[in-house]
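Entry 14. Ran structure prediction on the chain below.
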Amino acid sequence: MFEEERKRSIVQFVEQQTRASVQELSQQLGVSESTVRRDLKELEEARLLKRTHGGAVSLQSVNFEAAFPDKEDRFQEEKLRIARKAVELIQEGDAILLDGGTTTLQIAKMLKGFSNLKVITNSIMALNELKDCRNIEVSITGGMLRPDTMAFVGPMTERSLEMVRVDKAFLGTNGLDLHDGISTPNMLEAATKRKMIAVAKQAILLADHSKIGQVSFCKVADLQDIDHLILDSDTPDSFIRGLEALDVDFTIV
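Output, structure tokens:
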């Protein structure tokens, strides 16, 4: 089987099954697992599927959400640049809200130099990063824990958020589309993010270029509902022109 034919077969199999493991694809195609992994990497770069820990899923599945470790390993340099720009927006004395996610986790790691800050988060990972910071007052929302995101969501989380008002909320997203706005695969996650936007003076969305053009099951908000958007330099020009047409405030880093 030639390389292009093999890759076409991989995409067809993943789309038919919604998801597939490296082992399954290796057996199906009669090639080594290392060959499958190389093909999956190239197919993801071509935006024909999405790699996961140990396999791949179809981009057609709006319900898909990668586990936290899978997301943490992807686009690390872009996430660091976005997080650094976000931290530049924080001032001493601010009360800030950190959403669950891999980019917001990078913000948490960069807050240790502040001497007067209040942080509320629904992220166990962010809490763990900040728990020993003496000069940062850290609060956790509580609620129902989602293992995929290591973040609390649901009615208890929303009630906790109703009790606070923050200067800035930093949010992540699964999908970012000019027409369909901000989206995520989980209904409770979407409701929690909407509450975060509501309690913040400024809602700041962080998104690397892999999120652009993606649409997940549950809509969170329109792009115009966000006060500022931070994107990486691989953001397509067509998306930038769309943001300008919608009069959405954004920064490219």
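The first helix runs from residue 3 to 17. Will compare against last week's run tomorrow.
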